[in-house]
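Lab notebook, page 48
Experiment: co-folding of the full assembly
Goal: obtain a model of how the components sit together before planning crosslinking
Operator: M.T.
Materials (sequences as entered):
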Amino acid sequence: MDIKQIAKDTAKMLQSYLTYQAVRTVSAQINETNPYVAAWLHRFSTKERIQDGEVYIEQLFLEKPELALRIMTVRQHLAEEMTEFLPEMVSTGIMQANMEHRRQHLERITQLDLSNPSIQESESNSADSSSYETPSENS
Amino acid sequence: MDIKQIAKDTAKMLQSYLTYQAVRTVSAQINETNPYVAAWLHRFSTKERIQDGEVYIEQLFLEKPELALRIMTVRQHLAEEMTEFLPEMVSTGIMQANMEHRRQHLERITQLDLSNPSIQESESNSADSSSYETPSENS
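Observation: model returned without errors.
Model output:
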């Protein structure tokens, strides 16, 4: 598994996502002071455009540079605020979710074993036999 | 701006994204050992399904629990590996991108000023006049 490439892709995606959150924040702020511009920003910020944060900012700069500058300031602020607790949140979130999925699975197979033990057997035969290996062995 | 809510949303999105990256990793691994199961996983992993990582894992557990377990292991591993350098990467990425956008903008307005100074003026009139304020003042 190419951790370096995945980290790069994840950082790029996160950068675009924080840009999207910055757009939402700025949009909510100017909605109070200038609903006309907020409506314009809403129309401008289509799903396709906002998919890539950098292309979005670039295009916005050509239309309304002061909005682009403001969104850039907000996303930088968000990035600085997030970095402190985001990694911990994601790690804990995944660990807890994994535990919950395992618990539910255990509950399910225990019930299956009681009612129809043969289901379990045929299920494991149809699947990839090596799938319990740890992923690092194949990468 | 509601930093806490944005952090929560970002963590949830990142959790789903790492699940998606784990699916890609596992898919590439079993493609070598068991192309049949890899093809099945590819069909199962539709864009709609993978949008929410937890729903995806839950549904996969019902079909092929050993694949769900393997993907869960990989995503936890990814989360642990990422946390170390991801925040730095995103912060630096945004800072550099912002600098580059500002540089391009500066270049553009300098050129505009030389060729047609009136464009700048009419542009700033049509936009929200308060948009140069820092975002923290409104939140």
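Interpretation: Chain A has a mean pLDDT of 83.
Next step: discuss with group before ordering constructs.
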